[in-house]
Amino acid sequence: DTGVSQDPRHKITKRGQNVTFRCDPISEHNRLYWYRQTLGQGPEFLTYFQNEAQLEKSRLLSDRFSAERPKGSFSTLEIQRTEQGDSAMYLCASSPSEQYFGPGTRLTVT
Amino acid sequence: QQQVKQSPQSLIVQKGGISIINCAYENTAFDYFPWYQQFPGKGPALLIAIRPDVSEKKEGRFTISFNKSAKQFSLHIMDSQPGDSATYFCAASRRGSTLGRLYFGRGTQLTVWP
Questions:
Q1: Which of A46, A76, A97, B51 qualifies as a FRET site for B98, CA 20 to 30 Å off?
Q2: Rounded to whole angstroms, how far apart are CA atoms B33 and B109?
Q3: What is the per-residue pLDDT across A55-110, written as a single tens digit (0 to 9) for each?
């Protein structure tokens, strides 16, 4: 399968714990995006990388969130001190131009 | 502030009928308008997209109609099938920029009855 992959697919964590998600984009796609989707809503932009450079962060991305793309290939999204409001689907997309989404990581904070 | 407004929120169509979903935007800098289809538990899948230099784009049973002056665009699904039952999202972005972040509508849940 040569699509965007995300790991894990589901994560249940207790409030206050840290979690990290991984995204592997389509090979040679230089742009990588993270979005968050809550129930009944469209995806909302979080951050964007072009190669290894993080070019924009949404105001939705509080100081508890950090994203990296160290070698311009896979990316990680870390949430520190999780809160119940962080429960959502976290989507990764990669792009040469059109954006192709992965299956998402469903986070549940209890 | 919702950059892209989508309606209706839900839609029920008989098999073989036409499904129509509408979107409107305010930012005239938007120059790329994709539609995504999402099944439960899956990520959004790109369905069809249009640039504002054309008024219509058709791919199989899916057609985008674009009205630049009204800042509106719509998705038409002809001969709707039960397998089309999913949530549809319109989106917009400024592809001319180096950013390309997508602004999504809130989605339309389509149900096609057999």
A1: A76
A2: 19
A3: 888 988 889 999 999 988 999 999 999 999 999 999 999 998 889 999 999 999 99
